[in-house]
Design a protein that fits this description.
- The chain is α+β, with helices and mostly antiparallel strands.
- It has one domain.
- Helices cover 26% and strands 24% of the residues.
- The chain is built from 4 helices and 7 strands.
- Strands 1, 2, 3, 4, 5, 6 and 7 form a 7-stranded antiparallel sheet that branches.
- A hairpin with a 2-residue loop joins strand 5 and strand 6.
- The longest helix has 12 residues.
- The protein is globular, with a radius of gyration of 16 Å.
Length: 127
């Protein structure tokens, strides 16, 4: 499996400002034709061709472009990458990976808290 650092380098090679990019300008433009989801999971989420347009952890008084990311969270059986995004204002990529899917760590007494593990981890890293 790829390390989070390796995945971050690929994300940056695809979306970052350095040339040549992994993806062409035409491909990136098509991927960034975002439309809000209208039914089902995450109604209102702006979704393009395989990428999400999101704003994380906004803080009043801080420029909003610092919280604007493009990418896609990912999860499979036994691992996940809740943060898997690129920020154009800072020209940085961030990947936060976990080695277990939510709800699979049965050693915790409060299994409901287990489901929030990825979100809590992301908040801890962001701080």
């Amino acid at each position: 499996a790829a390390t989070p650092g390796a995945v971050a380098r690929v994300v940056h090679a695809a979306f970052g400002s350095a040339r040549p990019r992994l993806l062409s300008d035409t491909s990136l433009a098509q991927m960034r034709e975002f439309q809000p989801l209208t039914t089902g999971w995450s109604t209102g989420l702006r979704y393009g061709l395989g990428v999400m347009d999101v704003r994380f952890f906004q803080v009043p008084g801080v420029p909003p472009e610092l919280f604007h990311f493009v990418g896609h969270a990912g999860q499979d059986y036994g691992s996940g990458a809740f943060l898997h995004y690129y920020n154009a204002a800072l020209d940085v990529s961030i990947v936060l990976a976990t080695s277990t899917a939510p709800g699979m760590n049965c050693s915790l007494v409060d299994l409901a808290g287990n489901a929030q593990a990825q979100i809590v981890s992301a908040c801890e890293v962001w701080e």
